[in-house]
Design goal:
This protein has two domains: 82 residues, Rossmann fold (3-Layer(aba) Sandwich); 126 residues, Rossmann fold (3-Layer(aba) Sandwich). The termini are far apart. Strand 5, helix 7 and strand 6 form a beta-alpha-beta unit. The strands form three sheets. Strands 1-11-8-7-5-6 form a six-stranded parallel beta sheet. The chain has ten helices and eleven strands. With 284 residues, the protein is of the alpha/beta class. Helix 1 runs parallel beside helix 10. The mean pLDDT is 94.
């Protein structure tokens, strides 16, 4: 049986086409979706990420604004964006200035504009089963399965990695009644990792180590969702050894062209949902 390659690019294209229609509808009501990014300590990876988001926003007709801001003015500027009803999404790039922790900052973002889904308020809603916005990469990892026709209900999902940005929110998302998956979270302290993996239907790997997941660790029944982003000799690769696994497991996502392709579409979808809230509340 041929292994299925789960293409994220096609999923992203379908999502973007749907978003264009929703954005056109918003503009008919004089609501113009706007995403603002605050930049205090720019580095190469930050600037690359921003360029990617800008390109996607412009394709959809979303207003995208970058605001360089001194660290001493960061909280003040953030508060003004929270109060501005013409701004529907706020991102704050990292690294942050010295003396400011991510928690200090994220506590101050209006949850309704936290389109990345990373604030304590957003994560807290996810914990109680009433999410507003889920961290984009975690949501993309599940969406790529659903859009390819996979049913998670009652299935066993193994999440390898427990980061606050991916592993933990992904596990919580899978536990939602909407997906109803049975979840095992594995990490550096897990004994017999391969045993857990081979019992799973779905394996989500997010450990930040190139080629970490290999053939001897998996079974043919596994569907592998590779969330890793690593650069090896200038080439982008995932946490799964794609060449080793692509003709062995039931299905696998490629890197690039897999989860990362869907992540950007998820971010834009969150922004549109934030703008649509104004329609629901009659603020047009």
């Amino acid at each position: 049986m041929a292994v299925k390659i789960l293409d994220g690019k096609s999923v992203s294209r379908r999502m973007m086409e749907n978003l264009k229609e929703r954005i056109d509808n918003l503009k008919k009501h004089r609501i113009y979706p706007k995403l603002v990014t605050l930049i205090s300590v720019p580095d190469d990876s930050t600037l690359s990420y921003i360029r990617s988001q800008r390109r996607s926003a412009e394709k959809l007709g979303i207003i995208f604004e970058e605001i360089p801001v001194d660290g001493t003015k960061l909280f003040e500027r953030l508060e003004k964006l929270n109060e501005d009803e013409k701004v529907h999404g706020i991102m704050v790039t990292q690294p942050l200035p010295k003396g400011i922790t991510p928690v200090d900052l994220l506590m101050r973002i209006d949850p309704k504009k936290d389109v990345e889904g990373v604030s304590p308020a957003s994560l807290g809603r996810l914990v109680i089963g009433e999410p507003m916005f889920i961290p984009c990469t975690a949501e993309a990892a599940v969406r790529i399965l659903v859009e390819n026709g996979y049913d998670l209900n009652g299935k066993h999902s193994v999440v390898i990695g427990r980061s606050t940005t991916v592993g933990k929110p992904l596990a919580l998302m899978l536990l939602l009644k909407k997906y109803n998956s049975t979840v095992t979270v594995c990490h550096t302290g897990t004994k017999d990792l391969s045993l857990h993996i081979k019992q799973a239907d779905y394996v989500f790997v997010a450990v930040g180590k190139a080629g970490f997941l290999r053939r001897e660790m998996v079974s043919r029944r596994n569907v592998i969702v590779d969330i890793g982003i690593n650069f090896v000799d200038g080439k982008l690769v995932g946490d799964a050894d794609f060449e080793d696994l692509k003709d062995f497991v039931e299905a696998i996502t490629p890197v690039p062209g897999g989860v990362g392709s869907v992540t950007t579409a998820i971010l834009m979808e969150h922004l549109v949902r934030s703008a649509e809230r104004l329609l629901e509340e009659g603020k047009t």
